[in-house]
Amino acid sequence: MSSEISTDAVPLKPDRGGSTLEPWQFFVLAALGCATAALFASRGQGIVSIVLLTVLMGAAALVGIAALRMVRPLVSAEEERTVMIGHRTRVALEREKMLALRAIKELEFDRAMGKLSDADWHEMSGRLRTRAARLMKQLDAGASYRDQIERDLAKRIGARVSPPVTAQACASCNTENDPDARFCKGCGQRL
């Protein structure tokens, strides 16, 4: 397995000073204002008209929020979109890796219980292990977390981006390890 930490991409919202309204808040406030105005305008009309006007204002707010959610991805910045590795999302690759590893465990259990012959186990296990290794390599190749985190932090605090820290190689097996690793992920030797 990889020694790198698996994280999901969480878009950082730009700091707007805390005083500006988000677009969805505008729709909620507009609906509350319209509902209040409709309530004052319908005084003396009866409870049915007040309830219908309130439902109408709530429905209008929900339609506005739905329209905002539909249009926002079309006009938002690229940074807020889901991280893609190849043509698939990171979450999909993580899920597929988890399923492959679970299938390997189930195969080993079936073999231990005598439900699977050694020849079938070797064939199926080899395919699943190859698939899991391919997925892990694909996830590791697309994992530039440290650089992305450094860029996001630099953007938020206005500092300059520090150069990326290079990986360290193990003296005994020459495996490339993370810069902050204390043990080799290939042979387990202390670095």
Using brief descriptors, characterize the structure shown.
191 residues; mainly alpha; two-stranded antiparallel ribbon; 4% strand
Description:
It is a single chain. This protein has helices at 23-41, 47-75, 90-112, 118-141, 145-157, and strands spanning 84-85, 88-89, 168-169, 176-177. With 191 residues, it is mainly α. A hairpin with a 2-residue loop joins strand 1 (84-85) and strand 2. The relative contact order is 0.10. The model is unreliable at 1-6 and 8-16 (pLDDT under 50).
- The secondary-structure class comes to mainly alpha
- The tally of beta strands, per DSSP, is 4
Radius of gyration equals 27 Å
User: How would you sum up the major sheet?
Assistant: 2 strands, antiparallel
Helix content: 55-70%
Uncertain parts: 1-6, 8-16
On the 0 to 100 scale, the average pLDDT is 77
Query: Which strand order do you get reading across the main beta sheet?
Result: 1-2
The oligomeric state is: single chain
Shape: elongated
What proportion of the residues form beta strands (DSSP E)?
under 5%
- State the distance separating the first and last CA atoms: 18 Å
Q: What's the number of helices?
A: 5
Q: Spell the H/E element sequence.
A: HHEEHHHEE
Topology:
Blueprint (H helix, E strand, L loop, with lengths): L22 H19 L5 H29 L8 E2 L2 E2 H23 L5 H24 L3 H13 L10 E2 L6 E2 L14
Explain briefly what this protein structure is.
By secondary structure, this protein is mainly alpha-helical.
